[in-house]
Each structure stands twice: as C-alpha cells, then as structure tokens.
Amino acid sequence: MNDLVTDLPVAYLGPKGTFSHSALQRYFGDEQAGLPVATIQDVFTSVETGKCDYGVVPVENSSEGSVTATLDCLKESAVLICGEISLRIQHLLLTQPGTESGDIDKVYSHQQSLGQCRQWLDQHLPGVSRIPVSSNAEAAAMSSREKGTAAIASQAAAKNFKLTVLAENIADSAENTTRFLIISKKKQARLASNDQLLHEAGSFSTKTSLIITTQNEPGALLAVLEPLKRHEVNMSKLESRPSGQEVWSYTFYIDIDGHQLDNNVSLALEKLQQLNIQLKISGSYQSSGFIHTEEPRALLEPVLAGKKIVFIGLGLIGGSIARGLADKGLSSQLFAVGKDQAGMQLAKDHNVIADFSTKLESFCGDADLVVIAVPGLSVEKVMRDLAGLISKECVITDVASVKQTTINAAHSAFGEMPANLVPGHPIAGGEKSGFIAAQPDLFVDRKIILTPQDSTNTEATA
Fold first, then answer.
1. Residues 213/250, Cβ–Cβ less than 8 Å
2. Which residues have a Cβ under 8 Å from the Cβ of 67 and sit 6 or more positions away?
3. Over the stretch 374-403, which tens digit does the pLDDT of each residue have?
4. Quick one: which of 317, 327, 335 has its CA closest to 443?
5. How far is it, in rounded angstroms, from Cα 89 to Cα 159?
C-alpha cells in the first residue's frame, strides 16, 4: 500500500464524502489529494489519460453483489488492478435540520445503497420514493438543497453538507462491507522485493484477477476451470456478465489465490492461454485481508490525540489493540517493537502502524504510552530494558494474564512500582496467533481487568 506514491491526485467517485473517498483515505492516507469525478467510467478515464496515476472504484458489496459498471470498465480498459481495500460501511439517513421522518417524500442515494437498506426503508419509510443518483455524497448534496428529502450517506457527507443524522446503522446487514479496487496503468507484474519475502513467508496473501470470455459451446466453463483444479489454484470468486459480443455469450470474472508469477498459477495461466478463449489478466496484487471502517479521522478519545503509543509485541492481542486504534484514526501515532518483522511489516503495509523496529530505543524514549504485549515470562526483560529509556510521564500497561508476575517484574526492573504502570488484562482472545489474526473489534463489548497499586497515579489509571 504505502509503496503506491504519487504526486498526482487519486481519482475517485465524488463528490467529497463518498465511501470511495473514505477508501482512498484509508488506503493512501489522509494527506493524499483526491480528484472527485462524476462516474466510475470517469475514474477509469482519468487513469487512462494520465491525469491520475491511480483510481479507486467500488467492485462489490457483501449484500448487493458486484458493481457492474466497474466490471464492464475493467473488461474494456487498459488499466490494471494493483490493490484492494474492504470497508465496513455504516449507512446514515440524513436530512436538513428540523426535518422529521413524516416530512420526507423522497430518498436519494446510490443504487447499491438503496438496495443495502431496502428492508429498513420498507419498514420505516414505506411508500417514500427512492431515487438512485451517481453517489451517496451527491445524494447528500441534493438533499441539502431540497426540502422534504433525505439521503443515505456517510457521516462525512453529513458534515460536508450540514445535514442532520435522522437515523444510524440503517443497512439491512450489520456486516455490510464494500470492496474497492485500486487501479493504475502502471503494470505491477512483480511484487517489490520486500513484499516478495513476506509473500513467501506467508505473512500476506496475493490475488490475481482474470477476465475470460468463452465461446457459446457446451463445456466452455469447465474447460476454463480444469487447469485451475489441476494445478491446485484456489478460485475465490466467479461471476458472469453478458459478453456483448453475441447472444448468450458470457464473460467470466474470476479471482484466484496467488500471484501470476507463482509456479502453480503460472502453469495454470499457460494452459488457459492455449484454449479458444479471450483471456485478460487484470492484475496481481496484495489481498486486503482486513476490513476497515470508513471514517479514518474519528478519534477514539480526545485524550489520545497526538500521543505516541508504542506496542512491544504485535501479535493477536497487541495487534488487535493497534488495529482498533488505527481504525479510529490514530495510525500515525502508533509504533511497534518486536521480533516478528514480517508481522510488523504487514501492519505497516496496512496503515495500522507508522513504523516498527526490533530495538526498544528506537521509539520508547519519547513514548506517551507503552503497551507490553509479550508472553508473561518475557515481561521482566522488557521491563529492565524500559527502565533506562522511558520518561516518568510515560504510562505503561500490559496484557499478560497473571498480574503478580508483572508487578514482581516491575519491582525488580525499576527498584519500585512505577507510579505510571497500570497492569491490565483484557478478557478476550482467539485460537490463532500473530498479527495476521488481529481483529479491530476483538475488544468490543469485552471487559478488561485493571490492577493499579496503592502507589499508582490515578491519571495513568484513567
């Protein structure tokens, strides 16, 4: 992700405040300039003509399925897929201030969003006209100008167009998620050297997208799938669209696991190219793996704003805390120290942390908060190394299950119980380990046990 650097703006379906705009911010960072355009076709055109190096387009939703405009453009365009990101989408019903539900006679939104909120609209706004527009932010703009209307859009759109949130979480599925593609004319046939090492180590997975048009003949699809089976290539998606070439001729959109240069994938593609089909390799790219929230700037608590937070250990527990904070807009303040360089690199690649190191002195000297997330038997060594590094104002906590071990380690390392040490133990976990298993919502609706001592600073506990 972070390797996709550009001085040009990134094209997205506008105006500002769409979910595509949120995807751009989550993938490239808040500082990246965006170019809002009117249609998905315009995103592709902006990239094709060199006006932008990259574009962001929605390709499928967990409830409503594929975005056909994107699929059709992928087939005809010379651009390639070089990345993806998945966003958990929260739909809001927005209106002009003072408007009540009984005043609404029209609801504007993108066609996909209207479908994602169909049951809620049937129940709460029966008989109200539903009008599809080019984007959710455009719907918010229209509602801001027209009394008696509402828009289904994001919190960012509400802020941009000064609308009131009449209802939250109106999607029919609580797991409503949209997958976005990052497109470019810059063909990325190979992973960067560092990425290749991580890929071979199994720290992240890659995906290859194919577009295949077959003849209208018996067994055409079976002939396509057979080389994938023979070379043990897993297919994660298969979708058909009319080819537009002849009646009952279809184009198949296929996602497979692996990079096109992986041995088994390469052999399967070689066999496919020998068939009587049209084959386009739309790109090999890092699979997003993680689901992000769409609001990168929403801070968890104002007290954490601007604070430097260092994680010592970035496995399941430390990684989940980091992912939860990153999804609330704090990734630029998060740093990690540990032995698992592949896992920490993965965290950095996914914009979870700003940087990482194998040495405590790299980040701990000016840390505001240190989270010790290593196994219990390793806590004392970490404490000893921290004793000569951190300031007295730095708050320390840990996630080890046995608190007396942490307290004993602190006395041994510091010569006393540090006033800013607040031992803690979150009551949450999972069967898998490592950062790859971390989840941003692991601690949602879960309890945490804190064990401050008599000498513990009350502000640190807070």
1. yes
2. 40, 57, 58, 59, 60, 61, 112
3. 988 889 999 999 998 999 899 999 998 888
4. 317
5. 17
Here the tokens at position 24 are: 């751009």
Report DSSP state, residue 231. T
Residue 110's alpha-carbon distances to 57, 114, 116, 138, 406, in angstroms, are 14, 6, 10, 9, 53
Provide the mean pLDDT of the chain: 88
Picking from 374, 370, 330, the residue whose alpha carbon sits closest to that of residue 351 is 330
Phi then psi for 460, rounded to 5 degrees?
-65, -40
Token pair belonging to 136: 């959710």
**Cα 252 → chain centroid:** 26
122-155 burial, b if ≥16 CB within 10 A, otherwise e? eeebeebebeebbbbbbbbbbbbeeeebbbbbbb
What does the alpha-carbon distance between residue 299 and residue 301 come to, in Å, rounded to a whole number? 6
The dihedral sign for the CA sequence 276, 281, 282, 287? positive
The pairing of strands 309-312 and 34-37 is unpaired
What pLDDT is recorded for position 93? 97
Amino acid at 201: A
Q: Report whether 313 contacts 373 (CB < 8 A).
A: yes
pLDDT above 80 for 296 = no
| More confident of the two residues 7 and 422 | 422
In terms of phi and psi (left: phi > 0; alpha: psi -120 to 50; beta: otherwise), the region of 412 is alpha
- Helix or strand or coil: residue 119? helix
Q: At what angle do helices 379-387 and 403-414 cross, to 10 degrees?
A: 30
The DSSP secondary-structure symbol of 377 reads G
pTM exceeds 0.85: no
State both tokens at 7: 């001085």
Q: Which residues of 176-192 are buried (b: 16+ CB within 10 A; e: fewer)?
A: bbbbbbbbbbeebeebe
**Token representation of residue 22:** 């949120």
Compute the distance between CA of residue 431 and CA of residue 222 in angstroms, rounded to an integer: 38
Mean pLDDT of 161-183: 93
Q: Which residues pair with 151 in a beta bridge?
A: 94, 108
Quick: pLDDT tens for 26-57. Answer: 888 777 899 999 999 999 999 999 999 999 99
Bridge partners for 131 per DSSP: 108
Nearest alpha carbon to residue 461 among 427, 431, 417, 404? 417
Q: Give the SS3 label for residue 252.
A: strand
The percentage of residues in the chain with a pLDDT greater than 90, rounded to a whole number, is 63
Residue ranges of E strands in 146-216: 149-153, 164-167, 177-184, 206-213
